[in-house]
Amino acid sequence: MKVMSIFGTRPEAIKMAPLVKALEEDTEIQSVVCVTAQHREMLDMVLELFHIQPDYDLNIMSHGQSIIDIISKSFYGLDDVMKKEKPDLVLVHGDTTTTCAGAQTAFLNKIPVGHVEAGLRSYNIYSPFPEEMNRKITGTIASMHFAPTQGNKNNLLKEGIKEDSIFITGNTVIDALHEVTNNEYVFKEDLLNTIDYNNKKVILLTCHRRENWGQPMENIFNGVKEIVKENEAVELIFPMHMNPKIRALANEILGKEERIHLIEPLDYEPFANLINKCHLIMTDSGGIQEEAPSLGKPVVVLRTETERPEAVEAGTVKVIGVEKSDVIQGVNQLLNNENEYLKMKHAINPYGDGTASKQIVKIIKAKMQSN
Q1: Which in 129, 144, 200, 315 has the greatest CB count within 10 A?
Q2: Which of 12, 57, 95, 132 is catalytic?
Q3: What is the pLDDT of residue 286?
Q4: 350, 311, 356, 309: which is closest to 121 by C-alpha?
Q5: Please, what's the largest Cα pairwise distance for the chain?
Q6: Catalytic residue at 208?
Q7: How many domains does the chain have?
Q8: Does the active-site annotation cover 121?
Q9: Do both 88 and 54 map to the same domain?
């Protein structure tokens, strides 16, 4: 059977890489990989790390591209590829614009869709934007739903998805994470090798979500600045997103602080190993909420809601919002209360044991062969 995997961004590539490898290793499956390159450089870093050579590269990225640009270029390019390859199944991941375009294009070509990381919901169509609507649309089209958790499965059942099409597999990101982390890892960036991770409480910050642009991000950065000033044992590392507005604001508010290190974005391998070395994580990202707990790192979420409520319920993640006072209070509680910190550190990650990709391949074969 011919299975086509479609992805276009760095997060998708990270989470699809172990699945692509598992598909390639199976002699009963012909694996075809198509990337849109919605993100170009960041995508290429992951492809190189996992030694993936796409069969098709649409190379759609352009400077200042809009969501409309991405989705229209993806539709045209993916339609050509699908008409040529005629796959038996199209696999898409998560909630990007590439994901939504891939699912819709497959539907218009009457090709079944498998949705990896299915069933995440925030129940607010504008947060995260446009991801929440992308995954809802994809979920409506898909005939196989690979849900990381029971909670994700429950979300799909509430939307009328048939139970026999939903499979709980854990999240493929845990597969990828275990493959690249190493306690003896040495960074190419000298600064990251000089930080005292053992005796300092090193915080890793990521912040880039569209809904946090403007005042929320200003609140977050001012809160971060205050946290570092109040806690002499704290150092903070912020790999800055490439968006010029985010970088300008970060340099303005955080740039002159001695124990705050503004660095360039990291490839996945050094980034995963930086998570492994840090004390705790502050983030508005989705994937880190799954990754960091598998390495025993508490996560505070810089958003007002999360589509990963099972992480909150498990105690691995705490949503603290975007107000300056809430950011300071939420982080200080973990810095100054060892019991609270250890409780989160030792909570069991609900996103699986690193075997999701093998499970998905097995399910695909069984399901396709029975049809």
Answers
A1: 144
A2: 95
A3: 83
A4: 309
A5: 62
A6: yes
A7: 2
A8: no
A9: yes
